[in-house]
Write a sequence for this structure.
């Protein structure tokens, strides 16, 4: 009976009362290198167990005397919490990557890069900490250093 109550959907709740907003900001600098990103997102919680959301992302990277890159994209995320403390996730991202090299020996390029992350995290209220794996990882084209990535997810 407790599971049925946990999954209960209250039809009297307003749509916007079920929407949670969050996202991420990123900044990385070192000598001759700069990278900044913005990634807002929103999740609709159908009930305490299931959520579905969308996100946008933009990143600018500059390595002095080597290249400049922009990455723009969107994502679709599904969240499942079989118990309150455990959150399973599946997130599909599609990014348009544009790289412009300062050295003519390297060819400028533009391509779409997909990523499908499967993740697991520990959830407490509106914060989830966990790890996810990109099952479509391609080391030659990826915008990520490797397939495995820790995450902190916060929605308000």
């Amino acid at each position: 009976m407790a599971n049925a109550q946990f999954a209960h959907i209250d039809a009297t709740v307003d749509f916007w009362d079920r929407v949670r907003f969050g996202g991420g900001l990123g900044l990385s600098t070192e000598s001759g290198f700069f990278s900044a990103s913005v990634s807002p997102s929103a999740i609709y919680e159908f009930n305490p167990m299931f959520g579905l959301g969308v996100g946008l992302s933009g990143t600018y990277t500059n390595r002095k005397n080597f290249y400049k890159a922009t990455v723009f994209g969107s994502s679709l995320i599904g969240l499942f919490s079989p118990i309150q403390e455990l959150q399973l996730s599946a997130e599909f991202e599609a990014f348009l990557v544009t790289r412009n090299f300062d050295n003519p020996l390297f060819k400028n390029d533009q391509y779409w890069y997909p990523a499908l992350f499967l993740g697991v995290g520990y959830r407490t209220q509106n914060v989830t900490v966990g790890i996810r794996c990109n099952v479509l990882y391609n080391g030659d084209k990826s915008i990520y250093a490797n397939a495995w990535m820790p995450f902190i997810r916060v929605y308000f």
About this structure: Residues 2-154 form a domain with the Porin fold (CATH 2.40.160). Helices lie at 2-6.
